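To close the section, here is one more complete example, presented without commentary so you can practise reading it yourself. The ligand is flavin-adenine dinucleotide.
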Amino acid sequence: MKASPSHLFKWTVLYVILTLSPLLLVIAGPMKSTRGFWTEFGVALGFVGLTMMCLQFAITGRWREIAPQVGADHLLQFHYAAGIGAMVLTLAHPLILFYADSKFLSYLDPSVNLPRAAALTLAVICTVLVVVLSLWRKRFKLVYEWWRLSHGVLSLLVVLIGLVHVLQVAHHTYQWWQTAYIIAFVGITVYSLIQVRVVRPMQMKKHPYEVIDVKAHRGSGTTIKVNPVGHDGIKFDAGQYAWMTVGPSPYSLQQHPFSFSSGEKCGHISFTAKPIGDFTSSWRGVEKGTRVYLEGPYGAFKLSKSAKTPAVFFATGAGITPIMSILRTLRDRNDMRKCVLVDANPNQKEILFLSELQEMEKALNLEVIHILSRPEPGWEGRTGYITEELVREVIPADCKHTDFFMCAATKVMNMVEAELLRNNVPIHRILSERFNIV
Ligand SMILES: Cc1cc2nc3c(=O)[nH]c(=O)nc-3n(C[C@H](O)[C@H](O)[C@H](O)COP(=O)(O)OP(=O)(O)OC[C@H]3O[C@@H](n4cnc5c(N)ncnc54)[C@H](O)[C@@H]3O)c2cc1C
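Output:
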């Protein structure tokens, strides 16, 4: 299903209601006393900041009910923006209280209450660290897997300290039903975390896969083919992805998302990657028979069921993988809808699936436009990068009834999306899959 404006609207409204719900509950209940506008405003920001932090776990909890409707892409971008928002509110909470009444400074005074002062200081430090490490992880040379672990642990600490703080202050939550609601709300956080880190790996352990082939492509790409062991395997729609762990245990820090590159019903599952870090660089050394665990499928980067809906695809580098899965599925279904693929790479050697794409041009109603930025001598095709002119060139007259897919470098995706919108392509017709999410 596509991330249509109505789905986005529905989930946004729900998010706003959930974010404000503890605050509304507090307002609805009796108050011990009123303490002036700035104090109450500072407290309100604290409540909203805490609930936003809690919902961050739910947003990244890979819930099948939400992700397919909103799109993992939108969710992660939202998670990113909401994280910054939650940090601003969480930090504004004490600052505004200190401004409203200097007596609140005692909350950070170890001589008044050492555990409280230590916990609240820790919460402030963790809040800042969560955001700073996310924004500048590469500058701090923090390995992705360790960042991911620290991100979860630091965020959980903030939420748990926040809960204890609310319950201890108990100025607004002294009715049992208010306390129960706040605890239940934080429970969502812990539940999401347990699901992703404990329950799902446990389920994956019972449904292993094994590597049946490792193919090195001409350039730097590698394809790993796997088969389910003792079960039927994942049923996925072309264009979707799964979280993958390679090795004897699904409880690993090295769990990464990869789009299926095989067609929906070809009898095996394959993934194709280009090396950009330690995990993807290790693919060529993976041996046949190695255990693989998959969690999924996820993603809304899917083709319209109607065979009459034309499609235009934009890919750079490994971004071709989910598109390849879609094209292979179209070929298997003998689906002759009109398709155009713009595939940008540095050189010919780096074009993944080049010969298969050439065959597909004959088997399908498909036009492939390769564009190379550093072509080898003798290349007669297009050179350069995907430009706004090229985007306009491939937008069909009936763009309102055409699906546009893009899985490419961030800069290219931003440019293509803006150009499509400028040319009256409806937003719900634009499907994007971002590989580089942080
Ligand atoms: C939905 C989705 C589908 C993807 N499909 C493919 C694919 O089919 N083929 C392909 O080559 N790549 C794909 N990627 C990107 C792939 O997940 C990362 O390149 C891979 O995780 C890098 O791991 P690494 O250890 O080799 O590199 P690292 O050094 O760990 O990371 C290099 C960069 O990759 C990104 N990255 C690392 N781990 C993750 C992660 N768990 N989630 C998201 N981004 C991460 C980060 O931006 C990081 O800076 C996909 C990403 C997403 C989000």
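Once you have examined the tokens, check your reading against these statements. The pocket of flavin-adenine dinucleotide is lined by residues 72, 144, 241, 256-259, 271-274, 276-280, 318, 321, 433, 435-438 (CB under 6 Å). Residues 176-205 form the longest helix (30 residues).
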